Amino acid sequence: MHKLVGQNPSPHTPTQRVSWSRVRGFEQAERTEYQLREPSFNRHFYKGYFNDKTIFLSPSVKENSSFSCYTEPLDDASPKPKVIKLYLGSQNLKISCHLYNVNEEDTLENRKKLLLLYTSSGLAPTIQIFNSTYSGIFYFRMKLEENQSTWTIDIPRRNITYNTDIAPIEEWFVRFTMHHRLNMFATEGTLLDVFREPLLQWHLGKPINSTEIAALIPDVINITVSKCPCANDVAVIALICNDTVHGIYLGVTYSGFISRETQWFNMTNSLCSLLDDDCAGLSLVNIILTNNHLIILTTLGLFISQDLRYPTGRILNFTKPSFCGFERDDYFSANVWYNVQCLANAESYEVDYISLSFNKDKTLSQVSTCFYSNDPYIEWYSCLPHRIHGGKTLSRRVVAFLIDYQQNTGIGLITVQNKAMVSVYKITDHKLNRQTKFPVFWFPDPKFLPFGMFFHPGSHFLYVYGSQVWFSDDGGNTFMLLITLENEIIIKTNMCVYSHSVAFVTDKGNIFFTKAGLERYAKLTTSAHDVFNLYYDHLGSLNIISLNESISDSLEVHLLDVITLIQEDDIGFDGPLSPQYITEQQMVFFEHIPLNGKSRSVQKSRFYGLHKGKVLQYRPRGSATIVNVFHHEYPPQYLSSVIVDVLEKFPFGSEEKNSFIRNSLRILKVSDTTRVKLQLVSEYYNSSEQVVSSSLNEFKPSDIEKTVVIPGFSSFLIVEVLDSLNALADATMPERVQFNKSFASDMWFVYDFGTKNGRRWKIIVDTCRYWVRELDNLPLNAIKYLDLTQTFNFGFRVTPVNT
């Protein structure tokens, strides 16, 4: 895996200057790790010295240290949070920090030793506070006092921001280092302005305690989470219950659920007041948090909160738009859609849109089955105008509808007679034009079942998901296939702006991962929970959120280590592979129909696009990168093949375990079958070939699923041992079989990529091969504005690992 690392560049490594672009890959910007590898210091083992400009360290200093920082006053002896979440109120920002060794216990004594070591050497931490439009550097006090265990800093609020109005504001990132630009112990975190964040100024309903939530857990069938567009650590979580429980229950967090401070509210009464207190059957369907409003979709209608920017000191009020002709059952299958955008420092023309789609055919009493509106959501429009074909109105079922803010278009995901398509319409004065902007895109697979659609925030990548995943980089004009699933469908998604990550969840609990715009993906894991949801916090950490009545706020938060999961996941399968050389550095592996076990009935290829870019690894050694996947019906008995670039040569089968390779080999035709016969021939003969007689050099049942490889000719997968001298095999390249020709023992060899003797190969994500370091210290999510004639250059250095 590639990784951005904070190391000083080697003077021998070339530097490349390029135009503004991004390095893409699973490894791109993996900054969900809160500590980087840096040397730590121990008074007894430290072998180095300081001068006014340079720190000299011996190679023996190899441990990991990181900062722990916090704004809350904490007891010196108490455990300190390892994830840095800071909060700015109406007063100054006061921060305390200490160093700790990630491999040792974080004790008060160790904190004092590390503080004394660095302060006496003239070093103290610095903090960089930044978002996409602001960056500032602040220095901690270099002061030693008796029993001091932390460095402290007091930053006036006005030095960070002058604004005090309630409005959407970008949550800041913070980066702590031991002295600015030294990149020692670089540790990242977030800073949230709780004084200005709109949602945090409100009581959403009647406060309830975790005991009341715990009583609901047995009846919860799903949970949904929605994040603040500008501050992803601020989120709402809502419970979707079965038909035995009625009501709306929401929780609010400002720490990304890690501080156990989730405040729960019962919002039933607030919504019932708009229904003339006729709340029978009121249940949650979905929630959306926009820049200025909380949107709640229920079984009894859509509810829109008052503007969150203007707190009243009272419980949050809602309005309920009217959509004529829809019943309670219609809202069960409805959904609300929102293209996430942060409107901090919004221009006058920037505005949020939401849409409501009823996944059903239109009836005579209904104006449309899909509606959209812009903030403040007073006037609603039909998502798609009907088009006339031969005088008849073509009825279409709208699955999802989004507004593309960049191109000012409306994009509809629609099914017509069980076939899916995407239509893109230009918007003028908030209304759709009747003419499409692009030709309609029809998804080619009639079995594709669409479920939803989203834009990745901060980019222009549009994803359509369901039983497959497609993505578009041009706003819906064209699409590329990313994922194809068998007997499952993607029903949940989550995205992160900071790390450009995308996560998908299927109805079977499988979790898949990719990066925005990347044509590869990986399976992370399968959730052990039946009821859960995914959540990316502001720093890009991916968490599984589930319910647990024994925890103080009833929420269990499990951090997924994405890097480890994608490297450990084996996406191989039980079935024999047959290798065929193209060159010494490139091979083809053919997937043969399984010959034994539970997979015997499998007649469909199990190589997919998922495998492209992964590594085929053999035990004890040997590996190759899969560069292409092909599905085919020829040669017979082979379902698919992959082309691989060899990284490390695969070992031949040894004579001890494959004694028959001591003989010559003759290839014979077999009548009425596509298979060939492999016959062992004595290596020692005069003018005529003789069949081998030694029992030590014969075929054995354990040789089934092994591959005979003859360079320059077809390979042969052994499928049946007829007797000790003859075996049936399937050729990988039938046109390149030399019949009735004998090959001496030194002209052919054997590989075992079968499963009969235990599968020795697996398919995994490749390990890190390069380190990429950006040289200009740019924030990861920095926005650069360029005119048409301008260019922006930045430099990065690529260093091979282990060189």
UniProtKB/TrEMBL annotation:
The UniProt entry, under InterPro entries, shows: CATSPERB (IPR028748), CATSPERB_2nd (IPR048788), CATSPERB_head (IPR053903), CATSPERB_N (IPR048786)
The Cation channel sperm-associated auxiliary subunit beta 2nd domain extends over 208-543
Q: Which positions fall inside the CATSPERB head domain?
A: 577-765
Residue ranges of domain Cation channel sperm-associated auxiliary subunit beta N-terminal in the record: 67-193
Which residue ranges have biased composition labelled Polar residues? 7-19
| Recorded GO CC terms | CatSper complex; cilium
Q: Where is this region: Disordered?
A: 1-22
What Pfam families does its record include? CATSPERB_1st (PF21541), CATSPERB_2nd (PF21548), CATSPERB_head (PF22830)
Q: Which PANTHER family match?
A: CATION CHANNEL SPERM-ASSOCIATED AUXILIARY SUBUNIT BETA, CATION CHANNEL SPERM-ASSOCIATED PROTEIN SUBUNIT BETA
The name on file for this protein is Uncharacterized protein
Say which species the protein is native to.
Answer: Mauremys mutica
